[in-house]
Amino acid sequence: MTLPVGRCYSVADLSPPGPLPDTWVVVVNWNGAHLLGACLDALARQSHPVHVVVVDNGSTDESEKVVTGRAGVEWCPTGQNLGFAGGSNVGIRRALEG
Questions:
Q1: Do 67 and 37 meet the contact criterion of CB atoms below 8 Å apart?
Q2: Disulfide engineering: 52 pairs with which of 3, 30, 73, 75, CB 3.0-4.6 Å?
Q3: Which of 94, 86, 75, 83 has the alpha carbon at shortest distance from 1?
Q4: Is 65 helix (H, G, I), strand (E, B) or coil?
């Protein structure tokens, strides 16, 4: 499934029991499917709950499939490579929206 670009999508149930996390992690991705799973697994093991935003800079690999179904993780496809700073800004804007 390919999602339209230009907005962030929740690809998992984001209503865990208890208070919402107050820590957001922005992961900027470009064709990093081979690394993304391990990154998200490590973030899921943290003792403090985090909300993860994966900003995808126009990947053509299987990155979206790696993210799909992970609780507390949002997929934000940009449709183009904005570079690290541009991708980070997209993620930060999303985090500030809460």
A1: no
A2: 73
A3: 75
A4: helix
